[in-house]
Amino acid sequence: MKVYEIIALLLQEKKMAKKDFVQKLIKLAPRLHNTGEVPTEQTIYRYLNGTRELKVELIPYIATILEVSENELFTYDMIYSSSYNLNSSREIREIYQMLSFAPLSVISKIHLLLEKYKKLNEEANKILN
Predict the structure, then answer these.
(1) Which pLDDT score is estimated for 93?
(2) Upper half-sphere CA count for residue 99 (Cβ side, 13 Å)
(3) Which helix (H) or strand (E) holds 18?
(4) Is the separation of the CB atoms in 28 and 61 below 8 Å?
(5) 9 Cβ contact list (under 8 Å, min separation 6)
(6) CA-wise closest residue to 4 among 57, 66, 46, 61
(7) Of 83-87, 99-103, 118-122, which range is least confident?
(8) What is the rounded CA–CA span in Å between residue 62 and residue 67?
(9) For 13-70, what is each residue's pLDDT tens digit?
(10) Exposed, middle or buried: residue 39 (CB in 10 Å: 0-12, 13-18, 19+)?
(11) How far apart are CA 58 and CA 39, in angstroms?
(12) Full DSSP string of 37-78
């Protein structure tokens, strides 16, 4: 996924309008390296729509507004924002990050439990279809 697509998903997850995002970014007054100026509203909309390449110096400001790490703007996985689980995508990412702290035995139990839910879901879908 491209960064502007990830930003769009995070905006949707946070129920933040592009207009609000643009205003917050302008309020932070990030300066572009090549011009020394704050990007215009129109330029920011072009970044958000993918019609203009996002400037790297804006990444920290964007991450701050979206309350994510800068790294998450490059590693966000689209599966976390499917229409089914959009509302819980942040929780899913947090769980994913915390798994590295769990002992293997706990991860194995989680895996088995999720496999059971998967089977139940598949069986329910067979009955409904």
Answers:
(1) 73
(2) 13
(3) helix 18-28
(4) yes
(5) 76, 78, 81, 89
(6) 46
(7) 83-87
(8) 8
(9) 888 999 999 999 999 999 999 999 999 999 999 999 999 999 999 999 999 999 988 9
(10) buried
(11) 9
(12) SPPPHHHHHHHHHTSSPPPGGGHHHHHHHHTS-TTHHHH--G
Q: Report the chain's terminal Cα–Cα distance, integer Å.
A: 33
Distance CA 80, CA 2 (A): 15
Tokens matching residue 75? 């590693």
Containing H/E element for 6? Answer: helix 3-13
Residue whose entry in the numeric block shows the structure tokens 């970014």: 25
Is the pLDDT score of 78 beyond 60? no
| Total residues belonging to the chain | 129
pTM, two decimal places: 0.64
